[in-house]
Amino acid sequence: MRGYVALRRRADFARVARQGRRRTAKHLTCLVAAGPESTRVGLTVSAQVGSAVVRNLVRRRLRAILDTYAFATRLAHDIVFIARPGAGEMSFAELRAEVERTFGPPP
RNA sequence: GGAGUACGCCGGGUCACCGCAGGCAAGCGUUGCCUGAGGAAAGUCCGGGCUUCACGGGGCAAGGUGCAGGAUAACGUCCUGUCGGGGCGACUCGAAGGAAAGUGCCACAGAAACAAACCGCGUCGCUGCGGUCUCGGCCGCAGCGGCGUAAGGGUGAAAUCGUGAGGUAAGAGCUCACGGCGGUCCGCGGAGACGCGGUCGCGGGUAAACCCCACCUGAAGCAAGAUCGCUCGAUGACCGCGUUCGCGCGGCGGCCGGCCCGGCCGAACGAGCAACAUCGCACCGAGCCGUCCGGUAACGGGCGGCCCAGAUGGAUGGUGACCCCCGCGUUCGCGCGGGACAGAAUCCGGCUUACAGGCGCGCUCCGCCU
Asked: What nucleotide is nearest A8 when CA is compared to C1'?
């Protein structure tokens, strides 16, 4: 059971992009904004990152990393991670390090 | 054994921990079980199923296809053949109808690129000069003009035949012998494309140039579309003349999503909204597997078995270990790096393109052994 709900609506993504606090690493950007109730997380992996196979790999690795975070203990936030070009060339450990750098270490 | 060629297929495996989606059971927000990417899921180039709209007909336009027969739901696909090109061969490649319907084009070179004639060859007439002489003429040369000819001439991808002989003023497929390409007509064979033989003595090439001929094509697409909801608009129906009050004629407007002819209508409700939910849509299909039969084959039929992803910010995974394969290094213990192309979105049949490594089976050529 994941500790967060998926962010789905296009309007929510746009709101987080406008209002959210932004922290950027070499291949990853993290945006955090206040949310309505429970914590919601969205992932954006555009075609700039690579082919469909590479995009799937990056998205699945990000989900696996975020599974280790216990969002339920935190306040209600809407969080969006945006993969940047080159994210597909990183190893799993490197990607996890970028998540910790932009969002913070797991509790 | 080497080289080649055709067809079919695989395209990492096991375990552990942590997760996701769908389904079925319990059960009530927990647990168990099952299933979960490809041969190309890709490019979106064809063909269909399905959906909505349109649908009386004729013609034109536009687009597509183009050897024959067959297969198929259909196709621009596939199979078997034919013809032509390539290869010693197995085999392979080909938008492969029509150039005696018309038009256009044929670069450079060349006289000339399609029907004529620049040089040449021959002949006739006139003029001039020379020779001879029986003083009429005859012969030779040159120039001009007419006619005949396409042998010879350099070019070019291509100038309609090649060799030899006859023939002629000179020549010519003009005639003959042998040979050669396309076509006409006839005969034979074949279901047909076409093949073989004879005949005529007719032909520049180019149609992925226009074009002609034959055949095919209603439009848009699953963000199609259906259901549920809300809001808004139109809300009494064009004009004139005639009328036996049914309607008729003319105009205007709309429709028959290209245009014309021709036809129909003048009130059928129409438009917008923003997401979401359910359906479409995911167990029953041009379905998959096995087997037998028919067929050269594509394929068809019978019998038995199976149910096989279904998301919608988009599941099908992440990490680690071991094994397998490849490369490099190696002190032969192992160490390091890597694992092709690529990720379903309405579903099928094809085509095209990408692809590390590997497997099976048939055939051909060469070499060696027996």
From this structure: B313
